């Protein structure tokens, strides 16, 4: 029924439903289309994502050929963004799919092929196969590109890499990028700054492990710091989140990826993803990934156990497949308290290293294709040696300076939210 309503009626109706509180003041930044500094009173109102503010951006799409970069987290209310805009007769020419695919059915790291979306009939162009950014031909087919992904605020989560690639394609083609912003559930800043000699697919920018920025803010930083190829500038328009601050708790309405399948895993991810550079399983191959840690050789040191198995769509060949792993069950700890400390937890790494009997194997990624390089994950060659030497947490954190403090100062220039 909604598809038959006139567009102006839908705009008025959506504005009545979604707009909360007084009309936003005009923004001092022409690329930002709403109030960027909520008052204490407005901060107590419900968080409203950029996508849910349809009245702010539907007029921008009328009469234009539209491309959308999205995945299952791209929603208006509780319905997929693409499906909703398609029903509103927005002329969507192309959908771009990141890691895990547009509908989120691909496993971690799995290559994704181009296809036709079965729900809408719109072509899906994979950006996680041979192609990592839209081509000139792709960009020639559209007038404006929408970016709507739920990020988790970590350097090694690949959404920010996709963002940079999309911004480059938009800059090269002169097309505008419309970002529908979403909160950062891990809104704090911590960890060593990436040594750019360790640049990889899991670390593309000189930022700490948790960068403390939304996708919209990070896009502003990419432009401002000249991180696009040839220091080109992408024309940005951002629909900011309303009633949001970085300190706020935010419950994700949709799991951001197959192995971040609970709110607990999202909040533990900044600390537990470092274990991908170790012989310790993070629970891939179970229904509780990134909430448990273990290894078969820790039997006797820990009583809690789990057994990774092949799980299509999540982890087909997990580390220590079909072996009983012993270690830590972090499902019941207060992960939100960890978030509020503003620090990743490195004590779990220190404790498990001490308990593991074969120290020379702990960080040796040559043992398994399921292990990553701890240097690339941590962003520094020093972290591995610091853990192995038994350095205290306090002394490890001291080595993250002055880089971390300098980053925090730089970050302030690009913030849209307190």
**Which regions contain 5 or more consecutive residues with pLDDT less than 50?**
1-28, 33-43
Nearest-integer average pLDDT: 89
Order of helices and strands: HHEEEHEEEHEHEEEHEHEEEHHHHHH
- What is the strand arrangement across the widest sheet? 5-6-4-1-7-8-11
Based on helices, strands and strand pairing, what is the structural class?
Answer: alpha/beta
Helix run count: 13
What is the percent of helical residues? 25-40%
Task: Describe the sheet with the most strands.
Answer: 7 strands, mixed
**Spatial gap, N to C terminus:** 40 Å
Rg, alpha carbons: 22 Å
Tell me the fraction of residues in β-strands, as a range.
5-15%
What's the number of extended β-strand segments?
Answer: 14
**Overall morphology:** globular
Keywords:
418 residues; alpha/beta; 12% strand; disordered N terminus
Summarize it.
The chain is α/β, with parallel strands linked by helices and 418 residues long. It contains 13 helices and 14 strands. α1 runs antiparallel to α2.
Chain-wise SSE layout:
Layout lengths: L6 H12 L35 H8 L4 E5 L4 E2 L2 E2 H7 L4 E6 L17 E2 L6 E4 L9 H5 L3 E5 L10 H15 L2 E5 L8 E2 L19 E2 L3 H10 L11 E4 L23 H10 L19 E4 L8 E3 L18 E5 L5 H7 L5 H9 L18 H5 L3 H8 L3 H6 L4 H9 L7
Parallel strand pairs: 1-4, 1-7, 4-6, 7-8, 8-11
Antiparallel strand pairs: 2-3, 5-6, 9-10, 12-14, 13-14
